Amino acid sequence: MVRIAEWAVAAAPDRIVTIGLGSCVAIVLYDQRAKIGGMAHVLLPAASGAQDVRYPGKYPATAVPLLLGEMRARGASSAAGGITARLVGGASLFAGLLTPEGAGNIGARNVQASRDALQALQVRVEAELVGGDCGRSVSLDVATGRLDVRSMREGDRAL
């Protein structure tokens, strides 16, 4: 179970799960050949001021390198294209509420920061289920690479 601002890496036959994605984003990495997966439940697009080093899974720029490093330490590919990504979350659950000027949609900013962090490390995003106005939960079957997304509003979907 990956909670907010946490991350995990596992090998088959394990499963990695996170629940309650609103504006947060699940960054899911997978190596099909090695059957190794990783997931981070990122909370914010970037650190403001002193970064909280106790929770490196909190931001895409720190979570992605951690996931890749741990996956590779367990035998995942270091070749470009050997590990792919999927993104889930980044919803705008509180669009009707007033936010500070310039704050923008935190969900959309989390998604973009996740894309940027993956691109910087040459990890291809193969699928996304992002945005909208509903919460989601995800479960990665590391043995098969199947990513199940559950939402009360959108129903169940494999990504």
Could you give the topology of this structure?
Elements: E1 7-11, E2 15-21, E3 25-31, E4 36-42, H1 60-73, E5 84-89, H2 106-120, E6 124-130, E7 136-141, E8 147-151, E9 155-158
Parallel strand pairs: 5-6
Antiparallel strand pairs: 1-4, 2-7, 3-4, 3-5, 7-8, 8-9
Helix pairs in contact: 1-2
Would you tell me which CATH topology applies? 60s Ribosomal Protein L30, Chain: A
Strand content: 25-35%
Assigned CATH architecture: 2-Layer Sandwich
What is the chain-wise order of helices and strands?
Answer: EEEEHEHEEEE
Give me the Rg, rounded: 15 Å
What is the quaternary state of this protein?
single chain
Helix content: 10-25%
Give the overall silhouette.
globular
CATH class (first level) name:
Alpha Beta
Number of helices: 2
For the biggest β-sheet, the strand order reads: 1-4-3-5-6
Task: Please tally the β strands and state the result.
Answer: 9
Question: What does this entry look like structurally?
Answer:
Helices cover 18% and strands 34% of the residues. The model has no long low-confidence stretch (mean pLDDT 91). It has one domain (7-158): 2-Layer Sandwich (60s Ribosomal Protein L30, Chain: A). The chain has helices spanning 60-73, 106-120, and strands at residues 7-11, 15-21, 25-31, 36-42, 84-89, 124-130, 136-141, 147-151, 155-158. Helix 2 links the parallel strand 5 (84-89) and strand 6. It is α+β, with helices and mostly antiparallel strands. The chain is globular. The chain has a five-stranded mixed sheet with strand order 1-4-3-5-6, covered by helices on one side. Helix 1 packs across helix 2 (106-120).
